[in-house]
User: Fold these one by one.
Assistant:
Number 1:
Amino acid sequence: MTDATQNIGTATGEGQFGDYWALLKPRVMSLVVFTAAVGVFVAPVSVHPFIAMVSILFIALGGGASGALNMWYDHDIDTIMKRTANRPVPAGRVAPGEALTLGLWLSFISVTMLGLASNWVAAGLLAFTIFFYAVVYTMWLKRWTPQNIVIGGAAGAFPPMIGWAVATGGVSIESVLLFCLVFMWTPPHFWALALFMNNDYTNAGVPMLTVTHGKRETRKQIFIYAALLAPLAVGAAFTSIGGWIYLTAALYLNAKFVWGAWKLWKRDEADAEADIYAAEKAYFRFSLVYLFASFCALLAQSVWVKFGMGAW
């Protein structure tokens, strides 16, 4: 039995505030908050600032609930992976049952309060998102298929759609495009991480694409998804949420994203190992910049339009 496994078995439930905060995956939550906020703001219906603020808060809590449920279920493999071994549950600072209880209560509170604060369409989408991440992705896809990230990426793509529903009470082609931006971005983003963290996934028995099909195929798939993402991202410029500001940013960001993926595909594995996967790490970091900058451009475009400047 490993020390980490022993820690889980002897967890006293005396974790500090920071440990319970870490259960909510705050870095992931920040992405949820930002994309959901953009979804609210770019929608064609104005929302009272207080309603918008509390709605985003409850969407964030729903994202945190998903993180806690994920850490509860995955604590066995988290002990094996270097990247996750110091998380509160595998490190023994929080008992698995506490993580489960926190996740379930936050799920109930976030969905109920979002429904009361905005509307039940948004609340229903949030409930489905939590279920999809905790059950479909974490409990099923992650340990079963190398397409885990592809299909499971839907969970991270729902927040802007939920934000749009907060404002409009429904779903439209624009909110579907916002969903698609995150959904198609997710595989290149996580597969770039998997290229230089492959040993973790191998040791934990997680069937990431790098484990089941090798790094060469993973590099190819990164390029394919980046190339498929580009026309969707650029095409959003020609909808009601687009315009010249977003189009300019989308052309630059997607050209760089696709070109980087092409260079990764053509990269020799011996070279990658020799420089400790520097290019893969750089592409992973840029993928974060890509998504943040894309949604910032949508936000800037919406501000431009709402101040009466016009879309083009």
Note: The chain has two domains: 1-171, 173-312.
Number 2:
Amino acid sequence: MKDGLVEVAVVGKFGFVGVSLVLGAAQTVQRSIVRVPGSALRIEAGAFREILHQSPEIREHMLGYVQLLIALNAQIALCNARHDIPERVARWMLLAQDRIGGDRVPVTHGVMAAALGVRRPSVSKALSDFEAKGIIEGRRGAIRIRDIDALRGEACECERILKDRFRLFRDMPHHRRVM
């Protein structure tokens, strides 16, 4: 859209982008944006399609992830419609922390606001309140979570629901391709 983007999924070390290929599309209709520094693996679309064709087990695993993403998208839409911005900010930070690992989330207020589809001052206010409570420590371009249990207390129940649903995929058997 000309007035910006809204995040519909958080993909981290256990996920992937390009689910359209798993569903048989020639190209994706979504735009993927990297919000935090890190590393990733990349595979050419044709090679990925070939792996899916040759391995029903891997295809089923990937389809399980697609099913999970649909459920996550629905939960995030519900959360965005029903919960206040501070609860959503806490949820977002906890999910980002879970995907990244560690207590430091390298993100700006503006990036978080764009991801949540809200105004930056609303995110800054929520983060300022969390910092005043000793829950987080803000630094330029990063937020350190000081008290993860207190941050969970600030988040809506969607954080737990999303994390539990994602755990189903994370705990599925993983397949490794031998080269």
Note: The chain has a mean pLDDT of 85.
Number 3:
Amino acid sequence: MKALVYDGVETLGYRDVPDPTPRDGEYLIRVEAVGICGSDMHAYLGHDSRRPAPLVLGHEAAGVIQGGPNDGMRVTVNPLVTCMACNACKAGRENLCPERQIISMQPREGAFAQYVAMPMRNLVEVPSGVPLEKAALAEPLAVSWHAARLALGALHPSMERRAVVIGGGAIGLAAALALKAMEVDDVLIVEPNAARRAFLTDHCGHTVVEKTTDFAPIVIDAVGFGATRASASQLVEAGGVIAHVGLGDENPGLDVRRTTLQEITFIGTYTYTAQDFRDTALAIFDGRLGPLNWTETRKLSDGYEAFQDLREGRVAAPKIILNPWP
């Protein structure tokens, strides 16, 4: 099969690699759509020791099952494979499983390829009327659905349901969409890139600004740099909630003194539970997350150029979807 392989810092090669061999209980999936994630970009830049070269990246996938009793089923892929036996898994907190694996990290190759193998429990059937390009958004949307759910769960009932989302990329936009689906109507997105601001305003119907000084009971940092953690610390209301979902860098920025004195709740959020993923997929299928018309599709063979364009800030759309087939 053809795959886009991470070969080293800012180096990707499109070439033939062996087809995946499904393990017991796994199915072979013909990948029809796979998104480029911020974590793929971190690996591409050499910033993720969990993803050493050479490696097939990509974990935001949808496709069609090949063979077996479910041959031909259209599915979206939950890329997080867990043990199903530990206390975290039994409690429905699979994202905290100590044995968790995710495709695009060793020992599981990713989905920037024509085929990938996954357990059936990680697959959600996609209705015939839903394009697989939209179904592939279930993974990044689930990340933000999980963050929004935790933030709202931690918000004191006396406080307004109002939010600021820092970052207008796919995770930030997805957080705004999830909050709206959870009946938070007042959501402001902060995005410094002018082209992306214009795109979001034209395509997504959200209020998007370059910067703000307005306080909010909920602040979601969908970027995760020291500077955005500092902004979150400044923008959150006393007694409010910061949900931190980005992994931009490890630099300081959180104002621990203000967090303590103003009794601010800080929540680190990682991926999603299996239920979050299913709930997100259903919200895509029934339209609660909107038309999802904010993606750009390119061929997997042009993946290296897509990464370069993202690196240089030349992409206005929050998400690039790659198609592995000519």
Note: The chain has a mean pLDDT of 95.
